[in-house]
Write a structure and sequence with these properties.
By secondary structure, the chain is an alpha/beta fold. It is 35% helix and 16% strand. The protein contains 6 helices and 6 strands. Strands 3-2-4-1-5-6 form a 6-stranded mixed beta sheet. Strand 2, helix 3 and strand 3 form a beta-alpha-beta unit. It is globular and about 50 Å long.
Length: 208
Amino acid sequence: MRTRLIFVRHGESVHQVEGVVGGPHGCRGLTEAGHQQAHRLAGRLADELAVSGPVAVYSSVLRRAVETAWPIASALGVSPVADCGLCAWHTPPYADGLPTARFHAERAVEGGGIFRPFEEGNENWAELVVRVGRAIMDIAHRHRGGNVVLVGHTETVEASFHALAAQPLFRGFDMDVAPASITEWTTDGDPTGWPPPRWTLRRFSDVS
């Protein structure tokens, strides 16, 4: 039974355009262009998944992801489920809404990287990958043999490469994940079996 995970990065967001940290309070949702992207993507996914069997839709709890997920879920005839595990960085409350450049410059941690945070009070990269990876695998286990749309962030898509493709925490390449894009992984094995099954990357950052 094929399990299909379709990762969607949220549409263009206000925090992205304004250059601020978009935590639970700093995120003001999608721009008008972002809403249009979400509705076009909803129509596309409804066409693609019309005859594909059971479908579920998950999103991070941040407003920009929720606003992207709602039209997709509506077009698929399901209710979206919010999961904080799919969120971008769990930034500290003091940073929420600050200009991103100021947060990075004024709160930088010396030696920050994989196991030390880049900024004071922030998650480190390893913590983010474990959190998001666990959410991905829990969802894959819950919906094995089905189709799942996971609406999140650049970091959600990046973490899928660690959880599903066994990429090392320190990757030798970067990723450019477009707003309202699709990244798709599938497996014909048990998603949470041991040893882990082989996953196939069907498409990455697809906005066609």
